[in-house]
Write a structure and sequence with these properties.
Layout: H1 3-50, H2 56-107, H3 110-120, E1 125-127, E2 130-132, H4 139-155
Antiparallel strand pairs: 1-2
Helix pairs in contact: 1-2, 2-3
C-alpha cells in the first residue's frame, strides 16, 4: 500500500470508529433505560407485595422474570463495553502490519518468518515455479483492493476517484 493510502484508510477507520462509538453510546443508553425500567418494576412490585395487593407467588414469578431480563441486559452492556476500543486499535495494527509485512519478514529469523507467513497466509500454492499466496482475512481483501488500486493508478491520469477502491 502507498503510504498516502495507509494514512487515508486509517483516517477512514477512525471516522468509522467515531460513528461506531455514537452507535455504541446510543445502544448503551437504551440498554440502561431498559434496565432502569425493570428495576422500577421490581421496586413497585415489592411494595405491592408488602401491601398485600398481589400474591407471593405472583411476586416471585414476576421478580424472577424481570431479574433474568436484567441479567441479559447486563451481558449486552458488557459486550458493548468490551468492543469499544478494540475495533479501532486492531484495525490500525492490521493495516500497519500489512504495510510493513515485507520489511518485517526480511528482518526476522526463520521461525518468526514462518509465524508471520502463517498469520498472513493459508494454504498457498506453488505452481509453475511461482508462489500463489492465499491470504487470510482481512489480508485477502487488502491484497485484492491494493492490486486493483495500483492497476487503476497506472492507467489513470488523475488521482480523483482512486480512493474509491478503498471505501468498501
Amino acid at each position: 500500500m502507498d503510504e498516502e493510502i495507509l494514512e487515508w484508510v486509517k483516517t477512514a477507520l477512525k471516522s468509522s470508529h467515531e460513528a461506531e462509538e455514537c452507535h455504541r453510546i446510543e445502544a448503551l443508553a437504551h440498554l440502561q433505560g431498559q434496565y432502569d425500567k425493570l428495576q422500577k418494576r421490581l421496586n413497585a412490585i415489592y411494595l405491592d407485595k408488602l401491601d398485600g395487593e398481589i400474591t407471593r407467588e405472583f411476586y416471585e414469578q414476576k421478580s424472577s422474570q424481570w431479574r433474568r431480563e436484567q441479567e441479559g441486559i447486563l451481558r449486552k452492556i458488557e459486550k458493548h463495553q468490551d468492543a469499544n476500543r478494540a475495533y479501532l486499535d486492531e484495525g490500525i495494527r492490521l493495516l500497519e502490519l500489512a504495510q510493513h509485512a515485507a520489511i518485517l519478514y526480511e528482518k526476522q529469523e526463520m521461525p518468526e518468518k514462518r509465524r508471520l507467513l502463517n498469520f498472513v497466509c493459508s494454504n498457498s500454492i506453488w505452481k509453475d515455479g511461482k508462489l500463489i499466496p492465499n491470504y487470510r482475512k482481512p489480508f485477502d481483501l487488502l491484497a485484492v483492493t491494493n492490486q486493483a488500486y495500483q492497476a487503476e493508478k497506472t492507467t489513470s491520469s488523475s488521482e480523483n476517484g482512486l480512493f474509491d477502491f478503498w471505501l468498501p
